[in-house]
Amino acid sequence: MTSLWSKISCALPTDEEQFPLQFSDKVEPSVVEILKRCRKQLYGNAAGASLNLNAQIVLDVSWERLNTGTWRHVDKEWRRVYSYGCLFKVAALCRENPSQEEVLQAVRTCDMGLLMGAAIMDDILQALVHILQNEIGRTSKEEEKSVEVVAKKLKTESPRSPSIREDKAVPRIKCPSLESFSTNYLLPLKPVILEGIIDHWPALNNHPWSIEYLRSVAGFRTVPVEVGSRYTDEDWSQTLLTVNQFIDSFILNEVSQDGGKSRGYLAQHQLFDQIPELKEDIRIPDYCCLGEGDEDDITINAWFGPAGTVSPLHQDPQQNFLAQVVGSKYIRLYSPDDTDKLYPHQSQLLHNTSQVEVENPDAELFPEFSKAPYLECVLEPGDVLFIPVKHWHYVRSLALARPIIASNLSWRGSTKQDKGIIKAYKSSAAQLMRSHINNLHVELSDKENLQKEDLHTFKEIRNKNFRLLCSLLFKATTQK
Amino acid sequence: SIRADAMRWFGFGFNAFQQIQASKNSENSGLDADKTRLSSPTELRGHVNKDGGYFELTQIRASWSRRAFLHLDEILFKVFALFFLNFLAAVSLPLVPGGYIASKSPFFHSLSPHMQAKSLALGGDHVILLTAAGAVYTWGQGSHGQLGHGALLSEEEPRTVEALWGMKMSSVSAGGWHSVCISDAGDLYVWGWNESGQLGLPSQNLRKISERKAHQQGELSQNSSTYQEEVFISIQAFPALLDVTPLCEVKAVGCGSRHTAAVTTSGDLYTWGWGGYGQLGHQSFSSLDEPQRVEFFRVQQLRVVGVECGPWNTFAAVTKEEGLAPEHPTKPLNKHGE
Fold first, then answer.
1. Which residues of chain A lie closer than 8 angstroms to B66, CB-CB?
2. Which chain B residue lies closest to A473 (C-alpha atoms)?
3. pLDDT in tens, A183-216
4. Domain count of chain A?
5. Where are RCC repeat segments found (chain B) (predicted)?
6. Does A466 sit within 8 Å of B241, measured CB to CB?
7. What pLDDT digit, counting tens, does each position of B142-180 carry?
8. How many Å apart are CA B45 and CA A203, to the nearest integer?
9. d(CA A309, CA A325)
10. Does B215 lie at the interface with A, CB-CB under 8 angstroms?
11. Domain around A20
12. Chain A residue with the nearest C-alpha to that of B104
């Protein structure tokens, strides 16, 4: 029986000479030096500890580069370096009789390389994660205990499943010809629901997507998860979880650790590039070929979340097909012609997002909103919604005893945007605070005359006032 | 002979290129794993002059893989004392007449003479400047709050840090994604990214790591109920006051990529932030989100007088302290420490 390491060795080049380490001069020679040390240790007899440490150096230095500047401008060479770091790390973990924990760590390392790195050596990380997954087997869940799971029945609350007004309904059409779709909907940029065009998907037939199926195919894979009710909230954040952890924490058990309700959403993630087994279950609709770009411009994102997750009203710079696989969604659409009634955020970060809560709009703050015409629908499994470019859309997953899985295919590239904002403003109160703090500074600098207790008190007051000043300036909650 | 008050340098942290301590191993294939990172302060050799004594005054600059000394010869000092002092003032790199030098092309950036720049620090992707009047300006990438203007936006032109306006600052420093400055009164202000505790504020990442460790070692966390009470800071977009120690003021500060080191008027060195390569000097590889004193210098009766940080290491300038008794650590080890 071949050991895990021998299977991994087969996937690697046979010797040092066959192992490529070519980089542009964007990568400093000192970093290449560490990579060469890794390669030497991989094929030499050095103890695992050295390879582990050098691999970690590569990961740490490339991680820093990946977090410098904007993601779009990160040089691809540094993403390649990061992938090499992952490769060497996996080797260090698996070389000497790895424990189950180490194998899981190796899977996670591969996923980090697939998520943040760039393909190297014929996408070797994809090959390695495949080998590692077979090693783990499908039933072991002992290690996935980092989140306390309270055994609960699936939530059966029935929220408002909206009834759709006929005069506002998105039109539905069954299996239209490419030409009629193009003429009637694509070119005039009109939304429509296409029925029957994904009935042949394995995900809806012989490989029906369910929680159990996803666990078996991808349970130990690490994916990015958005935490928080909606991305415009201040406490919204992103984290990395395995699919098992995500399902346990946010699909089956919606109560978070601190007792409050916290939503987790696997949103807008190119899951099918990371986990090709799932890509086998879907097909790109022919209608996508009608776009201006070529096939490389098509991006496929997956959306997987519990009932109640909301995507605030926003627009995207590309054409979209939203294919519903499991569960249903309420969706409302507004035309870009009515943008002035939708009150988009002013900031650069959120200018493609409306400030309005669609199903609970503040009529005082946003008086024009109720006048904006819209279309709405409830998207069911098997439906595909065509969202024309720049059309504003609002999405709410409807509560059923099942999670919502949808795929959206879009082309001409999508941009993921940072979502956090703190507002700053001036006030005359701030001026007053400043002079108050300065007076305290003057007192403090005359230290010889102050007793120790007084000094402490003065410092406390000064600290508190500084925080108050900042909260005035920045209208943010103060730290304790 | 070596003068009693001569300045010596100690380094700790990343050493994969022998920038702190050379390897006794003559093989070129790399160091022993335990010499790649040094978690305890180690004296730097090689800065002795031709008479075998230490150079009078030196500065250090460190990049990721290199460390350079800037020496000033003893004889020159005696003869050209006045010129010497001027020279010291002129060595305020990266500031140069008319602007400053960056580490990537284009190298020269001009600065308006109206700024009256006194000192300037380059962060990972941002710049912080101190004027002669004690005002602080920042510009560059702002996505991690490192500019301190309250938002996460970038700035192309120098913009004043409004929260500090009216308070005279005496020195500035910049790390990978954080900024630090010291006021005239010796207080420390911090802002930017806190993912490894480099701001000295509670970091959720560190708490998760220590919980995972405790879990693996079989220690059940009794304190899970305090989870919700603590306020964690991931990004501090405007300046926060950091109490390094209630006992005295901060004299000098240095920033690495994701850690911070501060020298107090009492001659102690405090470090906090990322510790994965031993750059905090506490003989461990843990990260800390609270300032902790480097006990080594107390124990050795050395007075820390200056600090300089490379991205993943720390260098402390020390002199021998006369009559200083080694104390017990005043603070218990941080809960995130080993």
1. 30
2. B163
3. 999 989 999 999 998 888 888 888 888 888 888 8
4. 2
5. 134-185, 186-266, 267-320
6. yes
7. 999 999 999 888 999 999 999 998 889 999 999 999 999
8. 66
9. 16
10. yes
11. 4-144
12. A26
